[in-house]
Amino acid sequence: MPISALRLHRLLLVASFLVPGLVFAAASSWNYFEVHRETEDTVKRTAAILDEHARKVFDTVDLAIGRIDDRIKGKGWDEIGTPDTNAFLRGIDATLPQAVSIWITDRNGIHRAGTLDAGIGVDVSGAEWFQMLRDGNRGTIISPPFTGKATRRASFAVSRSRTTPDGEFDGAIVVSLSPEYFEGFFREASPPGPHVASLIRRDGIFLARIPERTEGMRLSLNAPLMRAIAEKPWFGMRPMVSTLDGRHLIFAYRKVGTNPVFVGFGIDRSMVLARWHLNVTVYAIVALLSSLTLCLVSLLAFRRACAEQSALMRLREEGEQRLIAEQRLRQSQKMEGLGQLTGGIAHDFNNLLAIIIGNLEMLQRQVRGDDKAVKLVERASRGAARGAALTQRLLAYSRRQDLSPQSISVPDLVAGMTDMMARSLGPGIRIETFFPPDLPPAKADPNQLEVALLNLAVNARDAMPSGGLISMTGRAATVGPEGMAGLQPGDYVCVSIRDTGTGMDEATLAKAVEPFFTTKGTGKGTGLGLSMVHGLAVQSGGTLRITSSPGNGTTAEMWLPRGEAIPDEKAARPLARPEALPFYRILLVDDDSLVLEATGAMLEELGHVVKSVASGKDAIDALLRDPSIQLVVTDYDMPGMTGLELAEHIRKRSPGLPILLASGHAEIPERAGLNVPRLTKPFRQEELADAILALMHVSDDCAASHENPRGRHS
Predict the structure, then answer these.
(1) Is 143 inside a domain boundary?
(2) Among 305, 312, 448, 479, which residue's beta carbon has the most beta carbons within 10 A?
(3) pLDDT attached to residue 562
(4) CB–CB of 103/111 below 8 Å?
(5) Are 262 and 254 in contact (CB under 8 A)?
(6) Could you give the angle at the alpha carbon of 467 between the alpha carbons of 464 and 473, nearest 5°?
(7) Is residue 317 one of the residues assigned to a domain?
(8) Is residue 28 part of a domain?
(9) Is cis: bond before 211, omega within 30 of 0?
């Protein structure tokens, strides 16, 4: 049809801008990673060259020390301290361009022979390397840099101890090496551009370094390089910020053989970005020229199509009107059939509630001022909240809900479950409750506390086969500094359940909270009820105390920590306007399109920029295409790749990218080393906003520094 042809030309006109732009973005992204990869290869290769050179230097020094040791072995100090020995040492020194001087030192730290006459007789007993050798270290010692007393040159000592035939310390052989020799090789081997090369001891002291080195320069053990060496002592490469000059580096290091020193090489990240910016500029010029060319061709074709379309429209106006009427009728029939079809489709209950609650919240803010509409929305919201509470309660009863401690009004909680408890216990059991009006709130998981109270009530019922009375009471209590069995000093709320049943003897009472212990017949109990209640109380910071005797019933007391005051719901803070909240570029992942739309709408209303995808694979592709994503909000139960698997993949690629797991699936397996915050569906917009704020650790000042793009959805 002509309309389709005209639309096609419009699309071509738009594509003349979009396609070169997309190609430019893809090429720029690819080139960034390519430049980064090439830089990493250069860093690795240069570090390997520096390592090979340092190995050869230290191996040569080791051989020289061995030759000297063979020459003087078995000789007394009178024989060693002769001009012949000095001449021998000078001969070796002449073959070692890296050496500043060579010395033979006796057990008292006095130079007895050496390459310089001025240094003979100098006392070095206070030197670190000499003290280590004298204290029994039989390996090769590499000292910090120093200025030689005889040479007046910067150097560091490579030394090895001499021993008597019976193994006693008998002095040392010392070769002083020049840091400048290493630094000269660093300059020759390093590629052009801003870089850093260094020779560093295990304790962080620099032996040689370019572009600059000062005497006493060292890194703390908490510096990024030293932490990396502690984690991977032989070889490593990672981006890091220098604690010496604040430069951002791509840095690699290697251990020099078995010596306690490392060589390192890093390239300034600004060099990588400069190279990438140059390439991007070329790509931009090519993309602009291509876009202009395509735009010109498309514009000419579009104008011609418009002219043809105008002529055809005059001839087919009546037929088009009839066609539009037929299309409207077919569309109406299609929508009616679609409505009947979708009316019978069942959805996952938690996702359904998430959709309902989220949309009702947003609708409630839209109808302010219309009292009738507000009441209707509030009733619908209360119904949805009851459905959510029912879902949470069912999950709790099946023990599939995560523990979430919060301040609880125990009287309100008991009142809310009294009807359910009465139906569960049967008509032969009477329930009485008494809670003082000033009873403070307790701190526990409300759903798990309901399960615990129901378990205690069921145990009480089973102890009263002919019926009886269950009394539920509460009181505030304080444990003093002397403490109480199972409790720390502090304020508590004691919830007590007492029955008029058969009671327990001491032997049974001693085992009552042990897992799988039960006095019921086979198939009538698991023996896990009281152990679960005890575990909940202990995990909440309290304890479970049971008192009982045969014929006098049983009293079970749950001691729970006192919670903070519960704010009045009517006075609860309103949801802040989007302008008052920090905003982020968020990747939203959910295989349920309705949940995806509802959650995306809530995030957009909060001011965030939302990118929505329907699977883990699409999420990974989106992250590769858009590195500006600041937060990932993902569902757990998705086909192909679960939310946790997606989080694990993201953590490998981008360890610092925050991830929020939002799911109505309560039982989620743990992953070793993967700590992902979770938000349980259904959730309100306020809970979603609070979860994002808590995850991102954003201050008001930081939020004010952003430029608000106002909720775009892609």
Answers:
(1) no
(2) 448
(3) 92
(4) yes
(5) yes
(6) 75
(7) no
(8) no
(9) yes
